[in-house]
TrEMBL record:
<keyword id="KW-0067">ATP-binding</keyword>
<dbReference type="GO" id="GO:0051082">
    <property type="term" value="F:unfolded protein binding"/>
</dbReference>
<feature type="binding site">
    <location>
        <position position="42"/>
    </location>
    <ligand>
        <name>ATP</name>
    </ligand>
</feature>
<dbReference type="GO" id="GO:0016887">
    <property type="term" value="F:ATP hydrolysis activity"/>
</dbReference>
<feature type="binding site">
    <location>
        <position position="84"/>
    </location>
    <ligand>
        <name>ATP</name>
    </ligand>
</feature>
<feature type="binding site">
    <location>
        <position position="171"/>
    </location>
    <ligand>
        <name>ATP</name>
    </ligand>
</feature>
<dbReference type="GO" id="GO:0140662">
    <property type="term" value="F:ATP-dependent protein folding chaperone"/>
</dbReference>
<protein>
    <submittedName>
        <fullName>ATP-binding region ATPase domain protein</fullName>
    </submittedName>
</protein>
<dbReference type="InterPro" id="IPR020568">
    <property type="entry name" value="Ribosomal_Su5_D2-typ_SF"/>
</dbReference>
<keyword id="KW-0143">Chaperone</keyword>
<dbReference type="InterPro" id="IPR001404">
    <property type="entry name" value="Hsp90_fam"/>
</dbReference>
<feature type="binding site">
    <location>
        <position position="46"/>
    </location>
    <ligand>
        <name>ATP</name>
    </ligand>
</feature>
<comment type="similarity">
    <text>Belongs to the heat shock protein 90 family.</text>
</comment>
<dbReference type="InterPro" id="IPR020575">
    <property type="entry name" value="Hsp90_N"/>
</dbReference>
<keyword id="KW-0547">Nucleotide-binding</keyword>
<dbReference type="InterPro" id="IPR036890">
    <property type="entry name" value="HATPase_C_sf"/>
</dbReference>
<dbReference type="GO" id="GO:0005524">
    <property type="term" value="F:ATP binding"/>
</dbReference>
Length: 614
C-alpha cells in the first residue's frame, strides 16, 4: 500500500512556468511582427479599446481623444507619450492585465466583437523600440491613479499616486527611444505611422512635437459610405483614388458582404497587369489597418483591381497581419468573388463600352475567369477579341462570317497561313496566346460550332496540284536551283493569281539519318544499343516553295531556256516568297537577295544597252 506521503512524492512538486521576457520580445520582433512600427498600431488599438470600454460603461459625456506627444529634453533621446481618455485601469487590473503576459480584458466572446485586441501581448511590442514602458493610468471606476514601470528584463514597479493626481480617466503610455530606435520617434515618421494604421479609426488622433501638430484622421472618407450604397459618392471616391492612391481608376465598384461584414471599394486598375501579380490593397480590421495583402479575401483572378476594405466580422491572426481561416472568411471570400463577377456581368448588359475598355486592358484575368465558368463565358465570349488572318476581330463578328472556326496554335504557322487562307476566303484565328485554345474549344462546344485546328502544310496540300501535267523537267530544274537552300519545289494553281509563289516552312520530326548510317557499320553489340535509340528523332526545317501557275511570271518561266537566268529567277521567287510570307531570312537568303538583285540589274542594263545598239 502506498502511503499518502509517498503518493505526494510521486506527484512531485508543483512549479509555475517562468517566462523569459527578452526571449518573448525577440520572438515578437523577429518572428511575429514584420515591422517595429507595429508598436504604434498596438498603442492605437489599446487606446481605441479603452475608449470603447468607457463608452460601454454608459459614460458618454466625454470627447474621445487619442494623442501622441514627442518630447525632447536637453538633447537626450526623445520620449513619446501616447494618451487616451478611455476606461483606464485600477491597481488590481494593472497587475492582472498589464503585467500578465497573455492575459487580456477583451477576450470574452461578447467582448470580442467590440474590441480590437484579444491576445494580451500587444503592449510588449513597445519593447521593440523602448527599453522600458511606463504607464500612468486613472480608472474610470475610481480609486487612486497608478504608475507602472516595466523593464525589458521582466521586472516592474508599481506605485499608487495621490487621488486626483491624474484628474480625468485615461491612460498615458510613455516610451523612451533607444539609440537604434529614435527614428520611430521622429515627428514625420510618427505621423505617417499613425495615419497609416489609424486613417479610418472613429476617434480623433492627434500628434504633436513642439510647434508641429496634426489631426491625422480628420478626413471623412467617402468610400465607406459608397460601400454602404451611397452611389452619389462615386465621383468623390474616384477623386480619392486619384489624390491618395495616385490612380486614375477605370471604375469604382462598391463591395459589401454579410459574412465577415466586409465593406469596401474595388478600383479597376487603369493599366494591365500580369496574371498572378499581387496588388497592393488597404485592408482594415474594425477600421485599423491590417495590411496590404488581400490574398485570402479576394479571388485569384481579381488582380485587375485594387481594393480598400474594412472588415468588422473576421478574426485576425496573432500578428494581426492577416485573417484567421474560418467559415466567415470562406463566406466573405465567396461573396466578394460573386460581387466582382456580377460587376463584369452587369457591364455586359448595361455598359458594353466600359466592358470593352475593361476587356482591352485586362483580357487575361477575364479570359481566365471565362475559361472556367460557363455562364460567365456565354455572356462575354462574343466580346473577346482575337487576331485573325483578316485583322483583329471580336469573336462575335468572326462567327458571323465564318461557318467554321479555324485556329492556328503556332505563330510561325499563323504568318504563313494568313496568305493561303485568304486565298480560300477563309479567316484563321491566331490562337497562340494563353487561354485562346481553351476558350475557342469551349465556344465551339457551348454554341455548337465546328472548330478546326489548321496548319499551313495541310492548306498547301489542298492547293490544286498540277505537277503531273508534264512539268517534271521544269520542277527538276527548279529544284536544282534551290537545292543548296534545302527547299523543295512544286507547281500548283491557286488564288490569288497575283501571288507568284507560296513558301511553307514546317518543323518536321525526322528520324535521325546518322542512326541508319551507324547501323550499317555497327557490329551486333552496337546494333542492340542503337536499337535502344530507335525512337530518337530530330526536328528538321522543311521548306516548300509552291509556284503558282496562275501567275503570268511563272507561266513565262516555263519557257526560259538559259540555265543561269532560269536558276536566278527561281531563286528570286524563293526570296520574294520569304518577304511576302514574313519568313525570317537566314544569312543564305540575304546573300541570295543581294546577288540576285545585282544580276537582275546587270541583265537589265545589258538589255537596255542592246536596245540602244539596235
Ligand atoms: N490604454 C489602455 N487602457 C486601458 N487598459 C489597457 C490599455 N492598454 C492595455 N490595457 C489593458 O492591458 C491588457 C493587455 O494589453 P495588450 O495590448 O498587451 O493586449 P490586448 O490589447 O488585450 O490584446 P492584443 O495582444 O491582441 O493586442 C488589455 O487587455 C487591457 O486590459
Amino acid at each position: 500500500m502506498v502511503s499518502g506521503g509517498a503518493s505526494s512524492m510521486l506527484r512531485g512538486m508543483e512549479h509555475a512556468f517562468k517566462v523569459d521576457l527578452r526571449g518573448m520580445i525577440d520572438l515578437l520582433s523577429n518572428h511575429l511582427y514584420s515591422d517595429p512600427s507595429v508598436f504604434i498600431r498596438e498603442l492605437l488599438q489599446n487606446g481605441v479599446d479603452a475608449i470603447t470600454a468607457r463608452r460601454q460603461r454608459g459614460d458618454s459625456l466625454f470627447e474621445p481623444s487619442l494623442t501622441a506627444r514627442v518630447h525632447h529634453v536637453d538633447g537626450a533621446l526623445p520620449t513619446l507619450e501616447f494618451a487616451d481618455n478611455g476606461v483606464g485601469l485600477t491597481e488590481a487590473e494593472v497587475h492582472e492585465f498589464l503585467a500578465t503576459i497573455g492575459r487580456s480584458s477583451k477576450r470574452l466572446d461578447e467582448a470580442r466583437d467590440s474590441f480590437l485586441g484579444q491576445f494580451g501581448i500587444g503592449l510588449l511590442s513597445c519593447f521593440m523600440v523602448s527599453g522600458e514602458i511606463e504607464v500612468l493610468t486613472q480608472s474610470a471606476s475610481g480609486g487612486a491613479p497608478v504608475r507602472w514601470l516595466a523593464q525589458a528584463d521582466g521586472t516592474y514597479t508599481l506605485e499608487t499616486l495621490p487621488s486626483g493626481a491624474v484628474g480625468t480617466p485615461g491612460t498615458t503610455v510613455r516610451l523612451r527611444a533607444r539609440e537604434d530606435t529614435d527614428f520611430y520617434f521622429e515627428y514625420d515618421e510618427l505621423r505617417e505611422a499613425l495615419a497609416n494604421y489609424g486613417r479610418i479609426l472613429p476617434y480623433p488622433i492627434h500628434v504633436t512635437d513642439g510647434e508641429q501638430y496634426d489631426h491625422v484622421n480628420a478626413e471623412r472618407l467617402a468610400w465607406l459610405d459608397f460601400a454602404d450604397g451611397d452611389a452619389s459618392k462615386r465621383e468623390e471616391v474616384l477623386a480619392y483614388a486619384r489624390t491618395a492612391l495616385n490612380m486614375e481608376a477605370l471604375d469604382a465598384v462598391p463591395l459589401r458582404t454579410e459574412d465577415g461584414s466586409v465593406r469596401g471599394v474595388a478600383f479597376v486598375l487603369p493599366y494591365s497587369t500580369q496574371s498572378g501579380s499581387r496588388q497592393w490593397h488597404q485592408v482594415y480590421l474594425k477600421r485599423m489597418l491590417l495590411g496590404h495583402d488581400a490574398r485570402n479575401l479576394l479571388p485569384d483572378w481579381a488582380f485587375f483591381v485594387r481594393c480598400l476594405l474594412n472588415v468588422d466580422g473576421l478574426h485576425p491572426t496573432a500578428s494581426r497581419e492577416s485573417f484567421y481561416e474560418d467559415d466567415a472568411l470562406t463566406g466573405a471570400r465567396a461573396s466578394l468573388d460573386a460581387q466582382l463577377r456580377a460587376y463584369i456581368e452587369g457591364l455586359a448588359q448595361q455598359d458594353p463600352a466600359r466592358l470593352e475598355a475593361l476587356i482591352a486592358l485586362h483580357h487575361l484575368p477575364i479570359k481566365a475567369l471565362a475559361s472556367e465558368n460557363d455562364e460567365f463565358f456565354r455572356l462575354l465570349a462574343h466580346a473577346f477579341e482575337f487576331e485573325t488572318s483578316t485583322g483583329r476581330m471580336k469573336l462575335g463578328a468572326y462567327v458571323a462570317r465564318e461557318p467554321v472556326i479555324r485556329m492556328v496554335t503556332n505563330l510561325d504557322q499563323f504568318r504563313q497561313i494568313a496568305q493561303v487562307a485568304s486565298a480560300y476566303g477563309h479567316s484563321v484565328i491566331n490562337a497562340v496566346y494563353t487561354y485562346d485554345v481553351p476558350l475557342l474549344r469551349r465556344y465551339a462546344a457551348l454554341f455548337g460550332r465546328a472548330l478546326e485546328e489548321v496548319d499551313a502544310q495541310s492548306y498547301a496540300l489542298a492547293l490544286e496540284d498540277v505537277s503531273a501535267a508534264g512539268l517534271e523537267g521544269f520542277v527538276a530544274r527548279a529544284n536544282a536551283a534551290l537545292e543548296a537552300f534545302g527547299c523543295v519545289v512544286s507547281v500548283k494553281r491557286f488564288e490569288p493569281a497575283d501571288l507568284p509563289a507560296l513558301l511553307i516552312v514546317t518543323e518536321e520530326q525526322r528520324q535521325r539519318d546518322d542512326l541508319d548510317a551507324a547501323r550499317e557499320v555497327a557490329d551486333e553489340l552496337f546494333t542492340d544499343l542503337l536499337d535502344e535509340y530507335e525512337g530518337a528523332y530530330e526536328e528538321v526545317r522543311v521548306t516548300r516553295l509552291h509556284l503558282n501557275l496562275n501567275h503570268a511570271l511563272v507561266q513565262d518561266l516555263l519557257h526560259v531556256q538559259d540555265a543561269a537566268v532560269f536558276g536566278r529567277l527561281v531563286q528570286m521567287l524563293y526570296v520574294q516568297a520569304h518577304l511576302l510570307g514574313h519568313h525570317p531570312m537566314r544569312g543564305q537568303e540575304l546573300a541570295l537577295l543581294g546577288d540576285g538583285l545585282s544580276d537582275m540589274m546587270r541583265w537589265g542594263l545589258r538589255a537596255a544597252q542592246m536596245n540602244i545598239l539596235n
